[in-house]
Predict the structure.
Amino acid sequence: MLLDLTPLPTFLLASAVVILTPGVDAFVLLRASLTAGRRAGLGALAGIHTASIAQVALVISGLGALITSRPAVLSTLKWIGAAYLGYLAATILRGLWLTRKESAEGALTTPSANSANPYLRGLLSNLTNPKMLLFSVAFLPQFVGGAAQPALQLVLLGAVFLALAAVWELTIVLAAARIADQLQHPRVAKSLDVISATALLTISVGLVAG
């Protein structure tokens, strides 16, 4: 048969577990939506999925396996990804330091958060994370089954996974933007910044150590 839909239920369950596990993308989306609103969150979401589509396309074309077979390339990607996440955390901490003596009542954002391009931030945070590429290489082929056209089956699986991820991440953006007005107190803003910076630094270290 052209496509094998038998593995689809298992694939949907496995995908849901992966998607619901918090990671870099979730923190980037939360940060953008809480600090700059729904438009920024949607911009970050668009950047994340531009990178995700590119990485899934690499896997389907066979280039993903070639890239992941070269330790030097993977090592470089890991360090670039870790450095970028560290930069994001440093940006947040810098904003906290610059505003620590100011009375910013009613303001959740910092200058650095507002001036950043949310699309570019989402794109780079996902593109410099080799775990998405490795995940695609190791995960998607497990559900090819008995399809007569494996490449077409991979396209279907990749499209389903990205669609599920987009729905969940869009929910994050809309929910975060909706409650942003309730989180305008400076103390709440600072707490969120500290949590975001700590999470990004932790993920950055884990990316290199993993």
Summary: Confidence is low (pLDDT under 50) at residues 103-115. The chain has ten helices and no strands.
